[in-house]
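ok so i was messing around last nite and threw this chain in just to see what happens. nothing serious, just curious
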Amino acid sequence: MTDPPAGSAQRPRLLTDVAVLERMVADLAARFAGIFSEQTIYRYVFESYTALRRTATVTTHLTALTRRFATDRLTALAHSEGVLVSGVPEVLFVCVHNAGRSQMAAALLDHHAQGRVHVRSAGSTPADEINPAVREVMSEIGLDLSKEFPKPLTDDVVRAADVVISMGWGDACPVYPGKRYLDWELTDPAGRSAAEIRPIRDDIDRRVRALLAELTASAPAEGATS
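result:
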């Protein structure tokens, strides 16, 4: 196994993590055989590990989250390069911390779409964890965010998206031709109580339902939830 290209990613501190990640590379190399080289997969796995390692609260399940993050990034890369075709619109929600608004929007759209749209979310400066009050108000409507985690914004997921939605985000998102960019001005739930976040959640839900109606206007409406 060769090391990742210089400067592309740091090697893990724990030798046990190195062994797990190298097995992960082998598994993903088989999954993406004929699409990406093992060197590319190695770089994505170790880059993803390094990015998530900066978030202290995910260290317990860091390698498991690395697999999810790296797999999603590789899938996005394959989609953007035209190697894989999802057959449904790709939507990316972006906010600063990926701990509140973008997580709620992604969960709500995924719930209502029931497979008719593929959804991702990310943050320019990911938080350590999803806002507990956000998890609470989402659980009230039957959506469990306990297994979700803040993810860094990467170029591959932007390139894979058909629609990129920023949410009161001051930073500039990479702009590529052929994509639809929207900005939803929403109150930041950070530091707010569950009672204060519920109206934000409901506002996002209305926007998400309207977006879904636009994206699936020509598709059958079967399976839509109320």
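not much to say yet. The mean pLDDT is 88.
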